Amino acid sequence: MKPDPIKFSGVLLLRAVIASVLAFIVYMSVAFIFTDIGTQVIGYTVYKQEGTGAMEKVGDYYYSQLDDLKEQAKENGETTTDKETGVTTTYYRQSIRSEMKPWMKFLSIFLAEICMIGIYISTLYVSAWERGNKDRKHVKYDGQPKTPWFGLQSGLYASIPYYLAFVVLLGSKLGLWFPTFAGTFKLFVLPFFPLVVIMVPTASSAELAWWVLPIFLLMSGIKPLTSHLAYTLGFQNKLLRNYLLYGDGKKRKKNKS
Asked: Fewer CB atoms inside 10 Å of the end CB: C or N, the chain?
């Protein structure tokens, strides 16, 4: 029976989503580490909430401008009650951190992006390679027909949600619908999130530069191309590691002396 690329595309899509989530967790972890070691707390922003009303900003308080920050900025969660009205006001503090040095910010983005792309591609690669290796056995022993473009087809089918989102983004850019879809579209490119944040600084689609759209199309090719390469090597029973080391994907046996 001829294998169904549409069915396998569901497997690729699910694993791509899982890999994207894991990649984003790595991004948040790297960002937290570099923020912790590359910046320092220089003050607090204070907010207040009267009763169950909306949060209001009180002001920014910096260590360099205050002799006693705690006295001026209130403690986090501190409450006061107006004796006349009986309304309780709760104060909240949010840390203000210094700017990270440019070279450290670049390093954090670079490391995060390398790890994220690695997680994403390796997850897709393993899935497609295993399927290609499995189909190789079916072709050899069960008479299953060869499907050399199975990996590419599966990858393209798995990319359909991305392409649909891209069309919506294009329409949003043209002002047809969803003016803030540029912010939502970032969810479809989580493995490239550090770069996307730079290219798409706001959620407004109208402010999105036209040169960014071709880059998004290039990003969409990662899934089908990875799936095609992995499936092909799996069908040939070749490991990418050995292919890079030895040229034909086969491990060389050591000469016995």
From this structure: C
